[in-house]
Amino acid sequence: MDILSAIEAHFPNFSKGQKKIANFIIAHTDKAAFMTAARLGSAVGVSESTVVRFAYGLGYSGYPELSAALRQVIRTQLTSVQRMEVTRDRIGSGNILDEVLSGDMEKIKRTLEETSHEDFENAAAAIADARKIYVIGDRSASALARFAHYYLNLMFENVKLVTTTSSSELFEQIMRIGSEDVVIGISFPRYSNMTIQAFSFAARSGAKIVAVTDGPNSPLAKDATYLLSARSDMNSFVDSLVAPLSLLNALLVQVGMLKQDDVVSTFQRLEDIWDEYHVYQKK
After folding, report:
1. What's the whole-number mean pLDDT along residues 174-195?
2. In CA terms, which of 41, 86, 114, 231 is 20 to 30 Å from 33?
């Protein structure tokens, strides 16, 4: 049950002040998600302590947890136009460079603190030992999927980037997935149904699933063998994917270190080819 459903379920038992809070959150979820407890209380005419008790009454450990739940709702449900309106309220028109870059730095820091090192190491080992590696990322996450595929394809012969807008084509591309294979799926709010469907199919096929997503509440997490959590956020209509990219970068380095001898041999050959065909500019 998401927070809005929980509010509706508890509504008959709320006090008069709590009902004011509930009505405001339901009507203005996009604004409430970024308000402090004091500001929300002021907006509806109740005390800050009433807002905090409201959060406790819904089963949250405090107002920050309730606020995080609201942000999760709006990230998965807001349209691009609504995202721009939220950004305008949060940032305004000034200091956009400072605000966005500072926010991205904070997301990388939080990702480092929250990502499971055990899942990270086990995911890298599974990728290094896989018979075949499938990389799936749709919509804005397709840029991350292509990045991961580019480097994995340099390291291994058995890498497939799944790219399609059709469900039938999707399953045609992954129909041979088996227990010796690894699927790397990347998705962030708003989550791609294509990636979710591929994960479900791969899990039933017995493959190892590496989910690069925003946490255990993601629909990708339920089928994941290894969950790699990365902080993301919406900057206007643009998804902030700096932290996921950094996490993927670290994963690729870890895989490369596990297969160091093979990777060195491959890149020595590639350097000869690149040099022969003048792939890169030389002084």
Report:
1. 91
2. 114
